[in-house]
Design brief:
It is globular and about 40 Å long. By secondary structure, it is α/β, with parallel strands linked by helices. Helix 1 packs across helix 5 (110-121), helix 2 (23-35) crosses helix 3 and helix 3 runs parallel beside helix 4. Helices cover 45% and strands 15% of the residues.
Length: 190
Amino acid sequence: MNYPGALNEAVAAWLSEHGIGGLAKKALLLTAAYREGANSRAIDKAAYVVARMPATFAANVKVQAALALAMPNLMVLSLLDIGGGPGTATWAAAAFCPDLHVVTQCEQEISFAALAATLNAKSGLDVLQQARLLRTSESALPQDVSADMVLASYVLAELPLYAMPEVALRLWKRTQQVLLLIEPGTPLGF
C-alpha cells in the first residue's frame, strides 16, 4: 500500500520501534475480533497498522474517489476526522483534496492519538504536520468545531445501535459541505 507523502516510511519506522514479534498471530486475532464486532479500544496497535490500516486506507480511497467523481467541483478546504485513529482516513482525504489546508482529527483513545501525532509529524505533508489533534470523544468537541468535510470512518459500527442516529445527526450539524460515513462490511453485522 502506498500512502501519501512520507507516510510509508513513517509507518515502517514506527513498526521497527515497536517490535513486530508475534505480529502474524496478533493480526489474525485482530481480524477475527473485528469480524465478531469488537471495537478498537483494546487492540494491539502494531497488529492494526499491519492488518487493518491498509484495508481501511483502501476503503477510504475508494469512497473519496467516488466522491470526486460525483462532485467534481467540490473544493474541500477543511476536514474534521472523527474517531480518526492513527489518521488513516485523513491520509486519503489529503490525497484527494488538493486544496485541503485545515485538518482537525478527533481521537479519544490515547494510544491511537499518540500514533496519529507521531505519523502526522513524520508524514512530510504540511497539512498533516499542522493538523489539530483533539484527544477527546466526538460528543465532547467544542460546539464551534466544523469543517467542509466531516468524515467518520469505521466509527459508527463501534457504537451501540441506539446511539448511531444521534451521532450521525451531530456530525451532520458540523458539516459545511460533505459528510462521509464509511463503515466495514462484516459477516455478522452487515
